[in-house]
Design goal:
Number of helices: 10
Shape: globular
CATH class of the largest domain: Alpha Beta
Distance between the termini: 39 Å
Number of strands: 17
CATH architecture of the largest domain: Alpha-Beta Complex
Strand content: 25-35%
Number of domains: 2
Order of helices and strands: HHHEEEEEEEEEEHHEHHHEEEEEEHH
CATH topology of the largest domain: Naphthalene 1,2-dioxygenase Alpha Subunit, Chain A, domain 1
Structural class: alpha+beta
Largest sheet: 7 strands, antiparallel
Strand order of the largest sheet: 1-10-9-4-3-2-5
Amino acid sequence: MTTSSSKYLPKRTLEARYYTDPAAFEIEINGLLARTWQFACHSNEIANVGDYIAFKIADQNLFAIRGRDEVVRCFYNVCQHRAHELVRGKGNSRVVVCPYHQWTYELTGGLRAGPNIKSVPGFNRTAICLTEVRVENFNGFIFANLDIDAAPMDEWYPGVRTEIAEYIPDIEKLAPLEWVECAEACNWKVSVENYSECYHCPKCHPTFAQGVIKPETYDIQPMAEGYVLRHLTECQSLDQMSYPIDLSANEHAGEYRSWFLWPMFSFQCYPGNVLNSYHWRAEDSDNCVVYRGWFTQGGEESETIRNLAVQDRETTVAEDITLVESVQRGLKSKGYVPGPLVLDPDCGVMSEHSVERLQQWMREAIDG
């Protein structure tokens, strides 16, 4: 007789090729990562007219710049003359000047001047403009999308903009205090999966599990609509918290919330209404870079946040790097066979429902 338990076939993790095959990575670069909203910079990093910052999305060099009309625009970082890169790093400029032949562009992208161009018969300066990329300001965070036809962020992540603002008072007034850049020798999806489950937290992250959150209350669930995973838990008891918080500050001061926006960004509200973030940059099939951001009002100095950033970097971040790099090595083992996911019907910290949803999105991105 066949029992009901024998009929059940556990859902299994993705095959190793999704994480190790350079061909799969190329599909993502030209597909998923070129058609989704990716973090560019924080608006306070380009707060003044002429402020710019260069960055990369889906293997494309871009830059964001604030115009004289206070509008933030994003362009491909390439001169329309002979393809030299226009800017590097961050800075401020009244106009954008190509270092190669000094073609000069307005902050709106239009060509302003170029050496000897007036001598060229029929040269139409007004027809030349930098190629623009879509941008959105999401609670002070600037996101870009290479797909001109992409749905707006509020359709990709419905309700998140408002919900975050409820947990982070005056979020629009925040600015980066510190960025922590971490290179990881793993596929970006391995790192994202690790971030998006806490099945490993009690054992692998003792400082986080004992000094920040209560693991027994931790849960991660896909939001009802869109491409969002919401983490929620309570803070640890005050006598065990690794940093001071004021529970009377507002109704959410004792909570931890995180909103992961597929595919490569997460807002986190630590207990005490501390905003921090993760964003990922995919380098190749075996490497990514993770940026950890910490924010304060106007970027003002805060000993508490500085200490928390150090604690996080020396514990949770360092611990995760060891974990994800081991997983990437394991995915290349001839002995690896995709294992069953732990899907507890009651969900909770010891369930991998969030990984199941992530791997669904990952499979769709590569296989269609």
